[in-house]
């Protein structure tokens, strides 16, 4: 008899050799684990394979493309997406098992409460992100960087947290910002973004700082909150400075 797959767990990873093993251990309750290796130069793929995952090598700068390639490879009735720097807690695992094994469950997708840790410190505000899908209700992912899912049917939310340990140190943060700001700037440039002026740079930086420090409550996180909020403003600055550079090159 062929094996039945109820839940497929997907991890998209790039140079995550330090974390992929721990992430997959937390996903061992799934019927299958798929690691979509986005061009790693370290041992991510090797460690993932030894941890029991099916590894697919598919370098791409388009995150929707990565998620869709992984989706096509899933054999489960349900699909759970987790990043390599995220951890499924025991209580979340139990909730996922409960909703995905209930044959009378009418829900098409579930949002997870993501609890972020910046620079090792808990961030005051949680996120709600769609990550668990009935496969036949997930039409696909759209958007090259800030990708979103197209779902047919009703959605709900699970109560237990997904732990996200991001922005582990400033050196990694700067490297990641340099890489993704280039993609963000190119997308804005290709879309014909209005010409970048000095006031626009200040406005987007102020917006980024306000969002993290005030709206999300970063001021309650002490020095970590201030550093993270200033860094978000810096990330906006790099993106728009690169956009300005592309616009300048075009006009000669």
List keywords for this structure.
alpha/beta; Spore Coat Polysaccharide Biosynthesis Protein SpsA, Chain A; 2 domains; two-stranded antiparallel sheet
Quick summary of this structure?
The chain has helices at residues 20-25, 44-50, 63-73, 90-100, 170-190, 198-215, 222-251, and strands spanning 7-13, 32-37, 54-57, 78-83, 86-88, 109-118, 121-122, 127-134, 138-142, 148-151, 155-166.
Task: Describe the 3D structure.
This protein is an alpha/beta fold and 252 residues long. 41% of the residues lie in helices and 27% in strands. The protein has helices spanning 20-25, 44-50, 63-73, 90-100, 170-190, 198-215, 222-251; strands at residues 7-13, 32-37, 54-57, 78-83, 86-88, 109-118, 121-122, 127-134, 138-142, 148-151, 155-166. The strands form 2 sheets. Strands 1, 2, 3, 4, 5, 6, 7, 8 and 11 form a 9-stranded mixed beta sheet that branches. Strands 9-10 form a two-stranded antiparallel sheet. Helix 1 (20-25) links the parallel strand 1 (7-13) and strand 2. The relative contact order is 0.12.
The gross shape turns out to be: globular
Radius of gyration: 19 Å
Low-confidence stretches: none
Residue share in β-strands:
25-35%
Assign the CATH superfamily of the largest domain. Answer: Spore Coat Polysaccharide Biosynthesis Protein SpsA, Chain A
CATH architecture of the largest domain: Alpha-Beta Complex
From the N-terminal CA to the C-terminal CA, the straight-line distance is: 66 Å
What class do helices, strands and sheet pairing give?
Answer: alpha/beta
- Give me the strand/helix succession: EHEHEHEEHEEEEEEHHH
Describe the sheet with the most strands.
Answer: 9 strands, mixed
Please give the count of helices.
7
């Amino acid at each position: 008899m062929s094996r039945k797959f109820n839940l497929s767990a997907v991890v998209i990873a790039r140079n995550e050799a330090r974390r992929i093993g721990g992430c997959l251990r937390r996903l061992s309750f799934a019927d299958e684990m798929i690691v979509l290796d986005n061009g790693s130069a370290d041992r991510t793929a090797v460690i993932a394979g030894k941890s029991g995952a099916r590894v697919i090598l598919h370098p791409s700068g388009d995150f929707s493309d990565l998620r869709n390639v992984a989706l096509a490879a899933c054999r489960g009735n349900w699909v759970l997406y987790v990043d390599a720097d995220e951890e499924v807690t025991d209580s979340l695992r139990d909730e996922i098992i409960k909703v995905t094994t209930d044959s009378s469950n009418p829900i098409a997708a579930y949002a997870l409460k993501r609890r972020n840790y910046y620079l090792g410190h808990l961030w005051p505000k949680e996120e709600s992100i769609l990550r668990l899908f009935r496969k036949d209700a997930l039409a696909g992912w759209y958007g090259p960087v800030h990708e979103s899912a197209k779902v047919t049917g009703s959605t709900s939310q699970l109560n237990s947290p997904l732990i996200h340990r991001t922005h582990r140190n400033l050196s990694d943060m700067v490297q990641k910002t340099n890489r993704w700001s280039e993609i963000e700037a190119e997308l804005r440039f290709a879309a014909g973004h209005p010409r970048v002026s000095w006031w626009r740079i200040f406005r987007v930086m102020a917006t980024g700082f306000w969002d993290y420090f005030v709206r999300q409550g970063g001021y309650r996180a002490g020095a970590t909150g201030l550093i993270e909020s200033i860094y978000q403003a810096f990330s906006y600055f790099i993106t728009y400075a690169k956009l300005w550079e592309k616009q300048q090159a075009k006009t000669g």
